[in-house]
Amino acid sequence: MACQKGSLDHFFSTSKRPSLPRAPTPKRQRRENTEDSDSDMVPSEYCMDSASEDSAEENFEEDVSGSKTGSASSTSALTSTLSSEARAVGPQDISCYPRDEAQQPRLVAYPKDNKKRSFLSVWYNEYQWLEYSISMDSAFCFACRHFAPLSSSPDIAYTSAGFKTWKKAKEKKKGFAAHSNSPCHKAAMLTWIDYKAMKERDTSVMQMVNENYKKEIQSNREYIKTIADILLLTAKQNIAQRGHREKAQQTSKSDAEETDKDVPINRGNFLEILTLLSKNNPAIASKLVEIPQNAKYTSPKLQNEIIAVLAQMIRIDIIEEVKEAGEFAIMVDETKDVSKTEQLSLVLRYYYRGSVKESFIVFKAADKLDATSLTATVIKCLQDFGLNYKEKLVGQGYDGANVMSGKHRGVATQVKQEAKYAYYVHCHAHRLNLVLVDTVKSVREAADFFALLERLYVFLARSYVHQKYAQVQKEMYPGKPQRELQRLSDTRWACRYFSCRNTRDRLPAILKTLQDISDEDNADRAIDARGLASQLDFTFTVMLTVFCNILQESKGLSDMLQNPEVDLAKAVDIVDTFQNKLQKLRSDEDCFDGIWSSATELSSACKIPITEVHLRRHQRRLPNRLQDCVIAEQTESFLNIESVQKFGQVFDADSDDLSHEIPQAKRLLKRKFPESGNAAPETLLQFTAFLDPYKDVFAELFRLAKIAVAIPVSSAACERSFSCLKLIKTYLRNTMSDKRLSDLGVLHIERERTEAIDLDEFILEFADHHKNLRISLF
């Protein structure tokens, strides 16, 4: 039935919830009670204009007792009338109570007035609400006498005094027709119809109210779920929620004066998506139209609250996994956002049910960047999330900045003073990058090569030259994508590989572009082009071929070190493999012949003369910090019983238990995976997953395995979170609060968890968090 004044559904209009007593129940139990309970319920919402919960409760009591309220309804009149069972005013020979039937006596002849006019029984057929009193010779309205709204003033001619002006009874603008069209009579008729339907179903008023209340609750929940879905979509896709001017229309003269008419209204993505959904969803459309503005839950403040609840659900899920896992490690890094605020990124790494997880948990604004302040911020975050960092924190992963890795007062040292097992690991991806940077700088030919590559990029990036270069590529390589050189960076060596690869693949086009520009009239460009072209000789092509091979291997190593599932043991293996590859490039004649052949083919294709390559006899001595990086013979594997015992001593493992568990684990592996099989665990992570079902038997060994896979190899997860930060907090969204930034970051970075959010659970969390509900959700 449509929700309008006088109908039963008008009983459930949106307003503040009255403070009804409700026994506290656990979160999940409360949801079951809401969905499965068959007991009678007293609805918690009435039509009212009250602005506080106290006045809402008073209005609730007034509606039930029958007194006047701010906005009365037919159901309140129905409930009051039936609960009081008071006799209606009027003569004795017509109906006295709502349960009575309308008295419609059919006489052979009705009394006539002085104009010879009288009541006619045929009027009963047209107006079913008519009652006739023989004693008063008057007509009454059964509906208005028993079911009139409490806040209305029904016509006394049809309730107590009686109507007997028979001359006007059938006039359109007077009499029965006029009374039938009055608002009060229509509201009373709708309530009477609901009452008769209730009697036919043999149900009580409270049962009838309870059914409609449940429907209203379901409708409210679907509406809030739709709002949450839109906010989840915008968070996952990094879409701004708000617009510049969100008002759909000017509401006052002052608004019209303040608003520039030439500026179009931008309601924002959130409101526009909600409006779009309402076009194909009548339930959402009705909510947006019928409920008050302060109950639509679309304001920026309510958006922030909903986003905060959703993000907190994900954080709780992560913390529960960490607590179940036991041991965990942290990775921390910091960067500046667009508003020049230093943002600290905190990521947790832990083993959980067969896999290693690196879960982002928070962005935290850092007021100070000294080691003590950063340490306090990290410890405060761990305490706020209820993590037992003093006993369970087993690793720290940072970059090599002095404030983080300082031996005496760095963050790593201060955190370890609080958590005795929190050993610091310098990010291996950063270490690889530093080795490459310092090694290249120590070899003059390599340093000259990359300096020339950077000058080549700068020259080709000029507007005119770039257009010329693009046109040459289209002519020489039709149907193939254009290749662009990339700016070199000391912090991202992957760009050096792509720059070398693109230069090698498009070197003929680069030389032709330089030649064409050197023949033009612009002297500055021509001189630069001739100078660069003269440097692109056979030595350059040899260096280009060599570094394409080396950087391709180093890029693969860097990508693997950034993989969350890589543990320290696997990192050692892949680093050893990389060293073997470099050793082979140095000593294997076949590898050298392949590089030389590729360089000569490239030079021939570019018409570059092949000459002898002269290298300096006296090479610069490597810095002391790089002496350990020189390729040498392979050492024996450290994965043996003695090494495990030493590793266990670091983390206070029981050596006696380990001495028994290790041989038992080996026997179990042989029994589960015989020599003929090929499914035996090959990595430490697979071995940890293998021990998981037997963790009660191999308690110490399983704990050490979890610690080994939890210790971070790199802090790449923090770097990835910074990429997300730059997409969320942009130039146009630079006034975003730190709390909102952190919540949106969690929803975007932990995308799989975001998509798995149970919105029914969210409804309960939001109802607990938002105490001032304007619409009922349970």
Summarize the helices and strands and which ones pair or pack.
Elements (H helix, E strand, L loop, with lengths): L26 H10 L16 H13 L8 H11 L38 H4 L3 E4 L4 E4 H6 L8 H4 L15 H6 L2 H19 L3 H32 L16 H6 L9 H12 L2 H9 L9 H26 L2 E9 L5 E11 L2 E11 L5 H14 L4 H4 E6 L3 H4 L5 H8 L4 E4 L1 H15 L1 H17 L2 H14 L17 H12 L1 H12 L4 H13 L2 H24 L6 H20 L1 H17 L35 H10 L4 H18 L11 H8 L7 H12 L5 H13 L9 H12 L1 H5 L3 H11 L9
Parallel strand pairs: 3-6, 6-7
Antiparallel strand pairs: 1-2, 3-4, 4-5
How would you describe the overall organization of this protein?
- With 778 residues, the chain is an alpha/beta fold.
- Helix content is 54%, strand content 6%.
- The chain is built from 34 helices and 7 strands.
- A 5-stranded mixed beta sheet has the order 5-4-3-6-7, sandwiched between helices. The chain has a two-stranded antiparallel sheet with strand order 1-2.
- Helix 24 (538-561) packs across helix 26.
- The radius of gyration is 40 Å and the shape is elongated.
- Residues 1-75, 249-262, 617-623 and 625-639 have low confidence and may be disordered.
